[in-house]
Amino acid sequence: MRRSNPGNVVLDDFCINVSINSNMEAAFRKIQKQMATFLIWIVEDMSLTAVPRDQYGIFNSEECYVIYSASQPGQPSGVDTVTREVKNEKLEYHVHLWLGSDTTPNKSGVAAFKTVELDNILNGVVTQHRESQDYESVRFKGYFKNGLRILKYNPPGKINPFPRLFRVRGKTCPVLTELSEISWSLFNSSYILILQTDKYVFFWVGRSSNGSERVRALEIAQELNTSVPNSELVIINDGYEKTLSEVYKKEFNKIMPLDKRIILPDTTHQDNLANTSYIRLYKCSDNDGKYRVTEIRDGPLNHEDLESESVFIIDQGTNGIWIWVGRKAADKEKTIALRNARGFVKKKKYPSYTKVTRVVEDHEPYEFKMLFSCWNDESKMKNKAKPTILIQKFDAQAMEDRSSLAAETQLIDNGSGHVTVWRIDSPRTTEVTYDRHGYFFSGDCYIVLYTYKTKKENHLLYYWLGTHATQEDLDCTITKLSEIEAELESIGFQARVIQGYEPAHFLQIFQGKMTIFQGKGIMFDSNGKNAKLPSQYLLKVYGTMKYESKAEQVHMKCSSLNSNYCFVLARGKQSYIWCGQYSNGDHREMAKAFVKKEFEIVLEGKEKPEFFDLLGGKSNYDMSLMKHNFEPKQVRLFCYSNINGSFLAEEIQQFTQKNLIPEDVMLLDANETLYVWIGNLSSKEDHKLSLALAIEYLQMDPSGRDMNISIIHVKQGEEPPTFTGFFPSWNKKFWKHYKSFSRLIRDIESSSKGNGEHKSNGYIVLSKTECEFDQYDKYPLEILLVPNEKLPSRVDPLRKELHLTHDDFLSVFEMNYKDFQELPKWKQQEIKKRVKLF
Fold first, then answer.
1. 673 membership: H or E segment, kind and range
2. Is residue 292 situated within a structural domain?
3. Claim to verify: residue 316 and residue 195 sit in the same structural domain
């Protein structure tokens, strides 16, 4: 079993008290501040030794390592980094202290001291990370695109002893961990384990393991198999161990006695589903020699909460601790910041493996900034210019050819395609006539089908939900969507749009004239005609371009005015455009789309008394200037797992198209829009839960995301340019030759030794019935024989047989589940009574 790491407890005191040669570490002498590079050292004999590049990604559980990354901000770094000089640009520095689970206090202390030394060489602007084995950060794992290998110590020159047991976890960065013992107690239904002997590599596939995880793990198993001459790869399904041919079963049984097999359903993932929305801000102070940590507030946090003169701790619970060091903070506070953060972890009684990261003001990495609702970076905002191209001149093919522009603007074309609009008034669905396109009512729901042509005909489905729509209308909308989607051959995407959060292309469809009125559009007849608009209203006009412009009805009162906008006041035949003092000519041009031919321009401060009379008299309104100096957030990609109805996210840094996994549902967070990508091999259950997944993601974001942003569902192979443009070098034929796990297994089976039958290699081609059988949690027979009130909560007392493994089912019922299902119900019940599973 793994030993607890004593270094985790005394590391910080050791950093201060240990006597270490104060001369500069020899390993650091070649480091230059303007050199982009990636380096790894291991602690040996109280100093650092460079790890050979061909060993990058291989770690020893008894050792400590220091990892150094210097790169241009936002650029990838890792094992493929080519050392080069970067001129006239600040580099981003990261230093990681990696602690093996079985390391010693001396080694961890030396490593910690060396990270501080390296930070001093780089003028104290390094982001320092404390990483523990099995709990590495997203950034750390992102350095190793081919995964990590964490092995037990083996003296140089000595051949690794057999047998060896490995666990493989991780979809995007597979982590192969050599386990300290070989025992059924280390097996779990959600794991993939590899048992290597001098003759065989037994690849054991947990019943609940992830499809994409299986693909990456199989690649590793094949590598291990080729590393030993004449070795043979044997694939084993969880619960089907006894179906192995005799020769394989005999070898496997020697090491893993089948009569001792006990594998319980996975609960470890459920325990690790920490509340990622939890966040607290603490201020650190050291007055009169007494160190204090004072809670300031909980989330969401703002950049303004941080002060340059101080040090702050951002507490995310078991998700990690950040300590932020202001540039004007006292030198002593800067020096002991990381140690104090570790003390905070202990005081809070968080696990010793909790990630701790120190960041320095003006050198914060993006993952730190993402914790805040908004981040002010004036230098970056000055460099952030709007696209200079006239977007309305672009057709759909041009935007597809320039997908990066489509992604930046979130525009697919100039809106010149064919538009069909339905108004939902449960149980009726009425098509809206062309002359009423663009008119929406807050009490209704609408479906908008947009069809455009590139090299083929493309369909986009938007469903717009008014803020006062009823649940019946919402349900009816979803039903109608399914009908429309079933009629069309392919859908580019399906987008949920909530009133007030319309995306750019949706507004472009209506050429900047979308108008939202309050209430229900109750005056439609059965043909969708004769919708009477209000005879008097006040509209707030948004935007300066067609893809930004819309008007929304507000209360007809002076208090509704705002100096940053233009407003349209209509009363009978009178129309006015009121122009706030901070609006510009482009605002006014957009406002003209919402008035009749004759109108009057009214400038703020020069209104006539009768104008205010129309609004019920003059009163106070918002006259402050809105500022938009927030740094745009980085686009992020997440791979999601559904664990018993809860979602576990795994972020992928520096993502590419290769990271989109056909077996999974992925989330692309583009800030104002959330894309849900549906892989072609993902399960129907994941499809059903995909909207809930997106909503839960927004709820759990510690920065306090708006729950109403657009959520767009995209299917593999039908991705629009507004999505593909976020991926460098998108290739439409990328998945043409992709092989699923089952396909890879078939290929192995067809070329395997022996008689070539499916069962010869321990892998079973499951029927649909057997696949359904394997979806249930499995328990040993003795657990299922207890009284019903003592059964595990997820066991169905009326169908206990479903919770047996295949091998146990065969042993108890003397037939497989498929044959059992084909029996009459009365016969099934009779057999269940006989075996005491009724």
1. strand 673-678
2. yes
3. no
In a domain, 551, yes or no: no
Residue type at 132 in one-letter notation: S
Secondary element (H or E) of residue 98: strand 92-99
Q: Is the per-residue pLDDT at 86 higher than 70?
A: yes
| Residues with Cβ within 8 Å of residue 421, at least 6 apart in sequence | 431, 432, 436, 437, 446, 447, 448, 449
Residue 230 contacts residue 198 (beta carbons within 8 Å): no
pLDDT of residue 602: 95
- pLDDT tens across 596-629, in order? 888 999 999 999 999 999 999 999 999 999 876 6
Q: Say which residues have a Cβ less than 8 Å from residue 681's Cβ, sequence separation at least 6.
A: 211, 662, 663, 740
Banded pLDDT at 761 (limits 50, 70, 90) = low
Rounded Cα distance between 532 and 519, Å, is: 12
Distance CA 16, CA 339 (A): 10
**Alpha carbon distance 838, 218 (integer Å):** 39
Same domain, 15 and 106: yes
Residue 154's pLDDT band (boundaries 50, 70, 90)?
confident
Residues 137 and 20 in one domain: yes
Residue 12's CATH number: 3.40.20.10
Q: Are 60 and 143 contained in the same domain?
A: yes
pLDDT at 268 over 60: no
Which residue has 């089908």 as its token pair? 449
Helix (H, G, I), strand (E, B) or coil at 79: coil
- pTM for the complete prediction? 0.88
Query: What count of other Cβ atoms lies within 10 Å of the Cβ of residue 736?
Result: 8
Q: Is 588 in contact with 544 (CB distance < 8 Å)?
A: no
**Sign of the CA dihedral with 266 first, then 272, 277, and 278 last:** positive
- pLDDT attached to residue 94: 96
Tell me how far apart the alpha carbons of residues 31 and 46 are, in angstroms, rounded to a whole number: 20
User: Which residue type sits at 459?
Assistant: H
Model confidence over 765-786: pLDDT tens digits? 666 666 778 888 888 899 999 9
* C-alpha closest to that of 803 among 766, 774, 824, 833: 774
Q: Which residues of 78-94 are buried (b: 16+ CB within 10 A; e: fewer)?
A: beebeeeeeeeeebbbb
Q: What is the DSSP letter of 305?
A: G
Expressed as residue numbers, the domain containing 320 is: 280-376
Residue 228 to residue 234: CA distance in whole angstroms: 14
Phi then psi for residue 372, to 5 deg, are -105, 145
In a domain, 407, yes or no: no
Provide the pLDDT confidence category of residue 155 given band limits of 50, 70 and 90.
confident
Instruction: Check whether residue 137 and residue 191 sit in a common domain.
Output: no
650 — pLDDT class (breaks 50, 70, 90): confident
At 173-210, the pLDDT tens digits run 899 999 999 999 999 888 999 999 999 999 999 988 88
Give the Cα separation of 85 and 154 in Å (integer).
37
d(CA 631, CA 239): 52
Q: Single out the residue of 132, 95, 137 nearest to residue 116, CA to CA.
A: 95
- Sheet with 574-579, strands from edge to edge, namely 439-441, 514-517, 550-554, 536-542, 566-571, 574-579, 600-603
Q: Dump the DSSP string for 440-490.
A: EETT-EEEEEEEEESSSEEEEEEEEE-TT--HHHHHHHHHHHHHHHHHSS-
Cα–Cα distances in Å, from 480 out to 421, 427, 441, 484, 729? 12, 10, 19, 6, 36
Contact 704, 373 (CB under 8 A): yes
User: If you average pLDDT over every residue of the chain, what do you get?
Assistant: 87
In DSSP terms, 313 is beta-bridged to 282, 323
Which has the closest alpha carbon to 527: 443, 428, 426, 440?
Answer: 428
**Which two tokens mark 664?**
């999974």
Q: Same domain for 205 and 135?
A: no
Q: How far apart are CA 602 and CA 581, in angstroms?
A: 11
Rounded Cα distance between 662 and 171, Å, is 12
- Reduced to 3 states (helix: H, G, I; strand: E, B; else coil), residue 236 is strand
